[in-house]
């Protein structure tokens, strides 16, 4: 069970009672919103229709596309959780530079001028240094003469890391390692949200919504909004009888794979 502060547990109890959800479901959504920095959440919660995505001020997508009541429930719940994360200490504070901390890189690096995340990967760019946390293992690289614009993780069997610079797309493995074991950790991932690492609630594996493009939160948000709009139009065509069930399912899967 995810460790919470007293205020965090009270929040979970209150939301569980008001929304008619189990505490595990509320904690699952709390961690998902926290991982999305309070502005988005990717989740897989059976009590809320399975897999879905929420974007603050944007569209909410759930497994049952036409269940507006469920969409409103997810939207209201996520907004309350996002507000609580801003105003309440929900997770126990973890010292900087330790796994699970919001400042997960070595403290001697100072503050990054660029950072991002994707799947089980987080990165932070500093003057002449690139810090990468992958599956809980932190590695610091010498960036040489590269001006790094983003780091991405290749999908599928090849889990190699790449970054974009003025010279194009380059493998992170080409950079000298300053500290750590490189980009191929041997252990499975512990929890990497802001809370102390602990056992997550038991749900099915969260689907992979990301691609291997460099991490860019603004671009990701814009692309997701476009796809959600297309999904809404697709649903309208299906309801109007323009598309068959098979055509609708095929196009829906194609659009979801682009998120």
From TrEMBL:
Domain spans labelled SHOCT: 231-256
Domain of life: Bacteria
Composition-biased stretches (Polar residues): 180-221
Region (Disordered): 174-221
InterPro entries registered for this protein in UniProt: SHOCT (IPR018649)
Name of the protein this chain belongs to: SHOCT domain-containing protein
